[in-house]
Amino acid sequence: MFHRKPIEERIAERVANLPPLKEGKHFEHRPALIVFCVIMGIMVLKIVGVFLLFRFGVL
Predict the structure, then answer these.
(1) Which helix (H) or strand (E) holds 35?
(2) pTM higher than the cut 0.70
(3) Is residue 1 part of a domain?
(4) E strand or H helix at 10
């Protein structure tokens, strides 16, 4: 349809053109690192919050 390649082929070509990942690097781009840090921060805040609620006898 419209003489375009399927999405799978276009993604495969784009990934094939990427340079190899540097040694010791876990995130390919900055937004992935930011999302990971935000999620980890929320998890830590929840755990600390529950411990504080137990400490003050609210729960």
Answers:
(1) helix 30-55
(2) no
(3) no
(4) helix 7-16
